[in-house]
Amino acid sequence: MKIGYPCINRSIGCSSGRTFRLASYSDERLITTVAGNLTCLQRILEWNIENRIGFFRITSDIIPFASHPICTLPWKEHFQDELEVIGGFIRDSGMRISMHPDQFIILNSPDEKVVSRSIDELMYHADLLDGMNLDRTAKIQLHVGGVYGDAEQSILRFIRTYKNLDSVIQNRLVVENDDQRFTTADCLKIHEETGIPVLFDVFHHSCNNTGEDTGEMLDMTGRTWGNGDGIPMTDYSSQHPEKRAGSHTEHIDPDDFRCFLTISRPYDIDIMLEIKDKEKSAMEAVSIAGSDPRFG
DNA sequence: CAGTGTCAAGGTGGA
DNA sequence: TCCACCTTGACACTG
């Protein structure tokens, strides 16, 4: 079991997701930005190891505009050395890696242009992880997408599109339940048709479910991860006390987290904390989990 | 130089 | 049909 946090480390003083406006795009600007992002990513990874954090989500902003038509620079070749060094560090340290393309990446849209752009963006994510020579346990997590007035048909469109994806993407893609539209049960159904692993989001499940309990879903989603996929990943968060249902908390709720550790005890999982204050909560979670036999 | 409007991209739901 | 919201930092323009 590893514990991680997404994308940003506020303790270090650098960002691995610096970007710039499309209007000011130039190859030179891209190169300097990416060079800085990769340097910072390396620092974050080192910081993680020093703090016993073995799981990290790499921001999609590492290479700004990577899948945009304006970007014709062969960034993968240009930064091959740097990517290989980072990948080597990740492998040597045993760090688990994920990525999570943002809300615009939708495979089940009825608009084929949206789907096409989304696939381009997924290919960028896969290319980046491939460029680091990471095996297929480094995952790209995605929600099912939109409902468009017909959830059943929208699920079928996801399945059809998935089956036609390049294996470079299929090897890494996992599907995650969301808090408003598609439940864990929907994702399990998609798994049955495609074999895609299901990344279980505990908090989303508590917001959006059809009566299944968390332990049962941990069990069933865990079984969707095959041999080469690595230990099942889960997303963990808890409710922000003031904001609307589904809003992530600012800081980890220790009691809630202990409760989750107890529920999940029978299963070996990697836990991604989707919590606003990032590495601070992750450190606290590591401390809480310190006595858990799964946590090395 | 501080303050702030805006940023590649989609979907949803309320007005 | 339009707009705020989702969620988020930070770019880059303005005064």
Q: How would you sum up this structure, described in words?
A:
The protein is α/β, with parallel strands linked by helices and 296 residues long. It has helices at residues 27-50, 75-78, 80-93, 112-131, 151-163, 167-170, 184-194, 202-207, 214-222, 254-263, 279-289, and strands at 3-6, 55-58, 96-99, 139-143, 173-176, 198-201, 233-236, 270-273. Helix 5 runs parallel beside helix 7 (184-194) and helix 10 crosses helix 11. Helix 10 (254-263) links the parallel strand 7 (233-236) and strand 8 (270-273). Strands 1-2-3-4-5-6-7-8 form an 8-stranded parallel β-barrel, surrounded by 5 helices. The structure holds a DNA duplex (15 and 15 nucleotides).
Top keywords for this entry?
296 residues; alpha/beta; 8-stranded parallel barrel; 8 strands; globular; DNA-binding
The fraction of residues in strands falls at 5-15%
| DSSP strand count | 8
Helix and strand sequence: EHEHHEHEHHEHEHHEHEH
Structural shape:
globular
- Could you tell me how far the N terminus lies from the C terminus, measured between alpha carbons in angstroms? 7 Å
pLDDT < 50 stretches: none
Structural class by helix and strand composition: alpha/beta
Number of helices: 11
Strand order across the largest sheet: 1-2-3-4-5-6-7-8
Largest β-sheet summary: 8 strands, parallel, barrel
Radius of gyration: 19 Å
Helix content: 40-55%
